[in-house]
Amino acid sequence: MSRAGAGRPDRDPSRRRATPRERAGRPSVAEERAAQQERQRTLRRERDERLVEHFAGGSTGEAFVRVNGVATAVFAVATLLGAVVDHRWSRLGAAVVDLVLFAGGLVAFGVALLVGARRSRTADMTMAGWWFLDGSAPARVRRIMLGCIAAQTAIGLAGAAARPFTAMAFGVLVPTLGLGLTGCWGARFGMFGSR
Question: Where is 194: in which H helix or E strand?
């Protein structure tokens, strides 16, 4: 007999022993996980349907979305000019734009905190839904607002890296504007359950 055949004989799958869970009539871990994932998919579908119904008349708060997009574009142009044009005035101009957008972000952040604190008395707000629009905004609005935050972060870091130890470093402060505007949108227009 060969060494390969000297091992244990092949087991017949129909003669497999039942696990303790199977003997007790409980589902296996894989079955429990599949059931949990199905429940999560169902809850997500229901939430998406509620969002569609809630924002059926068109998305409110388009001004916040537009301001965030325009500010991101202005920031990108100013940073590009400050990084490419090798003159201190171009870097100074970029720094002025950065500081103005940062100041606007601080104001937006304060407004978001005030409006959100007032609304949280009657609405069951979550931090993820308020500041990152998770489950509280249409997918389009969430994608644009979070995309602006990501773009502002990337542009600020790229500008600071292109001209290190210059006024271009102020660009890393600009994502405060995107986060503040997103928080304003969530506090004012986000869909939350009532308390």
Answer: strand 193-194
- CA dist 5 and 68 (Å) reads 71
Give the separation between CA 176 and CA 191, rounded to whole angstroms: 23
Q: What is the pLDDT at residue 135? A: 86
pTM equals 0.75
Instruction: Report yes or no: 174 and 119 within 8 Å, Cβ to Cβ.
Output: no
Residues 6+ apart with CB under 8 A from 131: 112, 179, 182, 183, 186
DSSP code of residue 11: P
Query: How much of the chain is helix, strand and coil, in % rounded to 5?
Result: 75, 0, 25
Which amino acid, residue 9?
P
Q: What does the alpha-carbon distance between residue 44 and residue 21 come to, in Å, rounded to a whole number?
A: 30
